[in-house]
Write a structure and sequence with these properties.
Layout: E1 6-10, H1 14-24, E2 29-33, H2 36-46, E3 50-54, H3 62-71, E4 80-84, H4 89-98, E5 102-105, H5 110-161, H6 167-180, E6 185-191, E7 194-199, H7 207-219, E8 223-226, E9 229-234, E10 237-241, H8 249-325, H9 333-390
Parallel strand pairs: 1-2, 1-3, 3-4, 4-5
Antiparallel strand pairs: 6-7, 6-10, 8-9, 9-10
Helix pairs in contact: 1-5, 2-3, 5-6, 5-8, 8-9
Length: about 400
């Protein structure tokens, strides 16, 4: 059975109370007050749905009482119908300015009063419906604004993550965003099959929490909810949110859309850092290899030049010795000629070999210079990478204006 609306009549004329009681008793709960002071107390105590308020009362008149009712938080929402023996425009305007919803001229008939109440009830219901729509639209607008603000945070994080040189810096940037949203989180990076953990709270992550994160990660599911916690997994990163707002499904849904955006960018950044680290290690190896090969070639070239010099010195010494000894050996002319020719032939052959070795030595030097050039370029690349790692990050990079 529907609940009867409550009507409060504030009037110093008891006849009016009787008329209202007879007219409305079957449809409303009727309450009465004979002056403004009693009416103010009754309105706060009984919280009527409508107040019938006499204008001409001793002490506080109806306009004064109406203004006080509208000033009080507990009674400001109650619609008021003025009752007055005056029907002129000034009286009606005064009632409107005081905050009244309608005006009824005395004496009145029951049907007229009921019609006024029905119209006012319809108006109140429509107004309440409109207020509900406005509230719903406002909440939707604020929800959209919060979503846009969170999107701005995601963009800010993604842009700032470009400058992250290691996992610790990347984790700090990520957790700064989640902290700003009031989320308590732990991150796990899966880099080179090794797990690295970071937490938004001070202190170390407990062994049990690490085990839980790793176990859920190994299952391979993108989302896992347990208790008021949610873990989101990507190939290179896992996020455990330890205070997910499961009692607020709107916020919960926004976070489940927002956080994967950041995690997808983080996953790509971890892969990029792995590639950078692999290239850097490869560059170090190449630089070291260039230096080793160049050093070896330089040693081989120096040894070759020394051997060439030793051969020349040996042949020169032998020729000088033969020139000194042959005349003293008492050889026949043909014997002496044979030895001299043989020595000349050997020296000529040796000269060819020496000249060939000189070309080889020149080639070694050319290759050594090329390796030196490559080593210098490789070292310059490594120096640039090291310098970028040592440069302080621009904390303002990637900032965006939020709502």
């Amino acid at each position: 059975m529907p609940k009867k609306p409550k009507i409060l009549t504030i009037d110093d004329n008891t006849l009016i109370h009787s008329i209202v009681q007879r007219s409305l008793d079957n449809q409303y709960h009727i309450f009465s007050a004979i002056n403004g002071e009693e009416g103010l107390k009754a309105a706060k105590r009984d919280q009527p749905d409508v107040i019938l308020l006499d204008v001409e009362m001793p002490g506080q008149n109806g306009y004064s009482v109406c203004k006080k009712l509208k000033e009080e938080k507990e009674t400001s929402h109650i619609p008021i119908i003025f009752l007055s023996s005056l029907s002129n425009l000034n009286s009606r305007m005064a009632g409107y300015e005081a905050g009244g919803a309608d005006f009824l001229v005395k004496p009145f008939e029951a049907p007229e009063l009921i019609a006024k109440l029905n119209i006012l009830t319809s108006f109140t219901e429509a107004n309440e419906g409109l207020c509900l729509q406005v509230e719903t639209a406002t909440n939707t607008a604020f929800s959209a604004m919060r979503g846009s603000s969170e999107l701005g945070l995601a963009i800010q994080y993604i842009e700032s993550s470009y400058n992250a040189k290691n996992l610790a810096t990347l984790a700090d940037k990520f957790l700064a965003i989640t902290n700003s949203l009031g989320l308590k989180c732990s991150l796990m990076f899966n880099e080179m099959q090794e797990h690295s953990f970071f937490s938004s709270t001070t202190g170390e992550i407990s062994p049990l929490e690490k085990e839980v994160i790793s176990t859920i990660y190994d299952k391979g599911e993108r989302f896992t909810d347990f208790g008021n916690r949610t873990q989101i997994n990507y190939p290179k990163v896992a996020l455990l949110v330890k205070n997910m707002p499961l009692n607020d499904m709107d916020t919960y849904g926004r976070y489940k859309d927002f956080l994967p955006t950041m995690l997808g960018a983080t996953d790509a950044k971890v892969k990029s850092l792995e590639t950078e680290q692999a290239l850097y290690a490869q560059s170090l190896q190449l630089s070291s290899s260039f230096s080793a090969v160049r050093s070896t070639l330089s040693e081989v070239g120096a040894s070759l030049e020394k051997n060439q010099a030793d051969v020349v010195e040996l042949l020169t010494s032998m020729l000088e010795e033969l020139e000194d000894k042959i005349p003293k050996m008492g050889l026949e002319d043909d014997q002496e000629s044979y030895i001299v020719n043989k020595v000349d032939s050997t020296i000529a052959s040796a000269q060819v070999i020496i000249e060939s070795s000189a070309n080889t030595s020149h080639a070694f030097k050319s290759v050594s210079r090329l390796l030196q050039h490559l080593a210098e370029k490789q070292q310059s690349l490594l120096d640039n990478i090291t310098r970028e790692d040592e440069e302080p990050e621009d904390n303002n990079a990637g900032e965006v204006d939020l709502f």
